[in-house]
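re: ur msg from earlier - yeah i can do the SN-glycerol-3-phosphate complex, just paste it... oh wait u already did. ok heres what im feeding in:
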Amino acid sequence: MKFFLDTANIKEIEEGVSWGCVDGVTTNPTLISKELVGKTDFKTLVKKILTIVEGPVSLEVTSITADGMVEEGKKLKKLGNNVVVKIPTTIEGLKALKVLKSLNIKTNATLVFSVNQALMVAKAGATYASPFVGRLDDISEDGMSLIEDIREAYDNYDFETKILVASVRHPIHVKEAALIGADVATMPFDVFKKLINHPKTEEGLKRFLEDWAKIDKSKLMF
Ligand code: G3P
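and the outut:
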């Protein structure tokens, strides 16, 4: 299973990459706009992200027509080999997915909320489909059962599109996505940090170090 960071924040990306557990990054217009306010321009920010991250980096189009999405997608792709063009799950989006696939440009169909949408974007050639689990939980639906259903539907027909679990809000989402067999979970840095924490690890390490401090260090062989 791949872990992507769902952020455009350079410090978070640099830190995550240094842990050796970040396989890629996803962004969206909300995340990018947060980093641009009074700081830098889009191209500089994105180029920086693309140099830090070796794996796929999703950059979202803001056009709503297929032609506009394709043109934006081509421009985004020129920024780096690891760019994945994020396309909204709409009819215009399907048309754009098809064209971008024919141009060998990788895509991420975003804002997927149903199995049928996941099937449509897979048929249109999306590299990744991004179901938003947290936003379904927000409206009292079970986001994770959608992931289970999409996994089953894709496996029934050997679709190659990867399931990229998005709108991840807490570590349980990540664990459940892994157990279901999702291909990728993208998460905010805050959730990523929590994956490594366990109170028994901290307690155990504290005790080891306390016991070690008690011994006579002159008896050490090295
Ligand atoms: O990048 C898309 C998705 O992960 C956004 O998550 O928390 O805004 O629903 P959220």
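cool cool. The chain has eleven helices and eight strands. ping me if u need the other ligands too
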